[in-house]
Amino acid sequence: MARKFGIFFTIFCLLFTSSLADWNILKEYKTNDGLKISLKNYCESWRMNVELHNIRNYVVVPQECVTYIGKYMTSTQYKVDSERTIDECILHLSTNCILENDGKDAWIFDIDDTLLSSIPYYKKNEFGGNKLNVTSLEDWMSQGKGTALGHSVKLFNHLKKLGVKIFLVSSRREHLRSATTDNLVHVGFYGWSSLILRGQEDECKNVQKFKAEARSKLISKGYRILGIVGDQWSSIVGLPSAKRTFKLPNPMYYVA
């Protein structure tokens, strides 16, 4: 009898805990007029507010949304969203930019999930549902396994044809320079003017400050930054900025 009761109690606790988790989410995000929302609604709202920069400094993707984020990052919708961003970059270049063709027209790219996809790494880490292990991530980067993002290849090659100088500004650390260069060239990104990585003197700076300072140095050398493309807000906010900035989608992680 005691054994049966124990089994029943265990099942009850599991069901109750699961129901309670769902109930907390739905209750917290129930609309004022009593409209019931699904877990998909909640996760889509969370993703959208990450992209709008309303949700910041999160450490992990909410466990309830890991499956949803994984499906998005491997979906046609992610590709379409990214392609639209790149199309807007090309439109900006053709309608709002007068190229001087004096070697000082410039464009800045981030690297991770802007040029090189890290989805293969994050697929093994719950698409951001696991807390980031920097050592593990850098080990993966050092193996040069990043795959080219096709939408960014299109913009990269378009800029080269226009004669625009391309600068890569990444929060990757200096010891990854060789692996990063090899990975970029191997998947078709070559012909850039400079690869700017974080040195020892940048270790205590947040990424936003490091990248803003990199832009400042380029501008002091006479470069006109026509645009910046990155998947993190820290790649595009802060002063000095560019004529236009463009944000690619990426809800898997947040870099301040």
TrEMBL record:
- Please report the organism this UniProt entry assigns to the protein: Anisodus acutangulus
- Family, as annotated: Belongs to the APS1/VSP family.
Tell me which domain of life the UniProt entry assigns to the organism this sequence originates from.
Eukaryota
Gene3D superfamilies recorded: HAD superfamily/HAD-like
Q: Which residues cross the membrane?
A: none
Q: Which GO terms describe its molecular function?
A: acid phosphatase activity
What keywords does the record list, in alphabetical order?
Glycoprotein, Signal
Signal peptide as annotated in the record: 1-21
InterPro entries for the chain:
Acid_phosphat_B-like, Acid_phosphatase_pln, APS1/VSP, HAD-like_sf, HAD_sf
**Which Pfam families does this UniProt record tie to the protein?**
Acid_phosphat_B
Q: What protein name is recorded for this chain?
A: Acid phosphatase 1
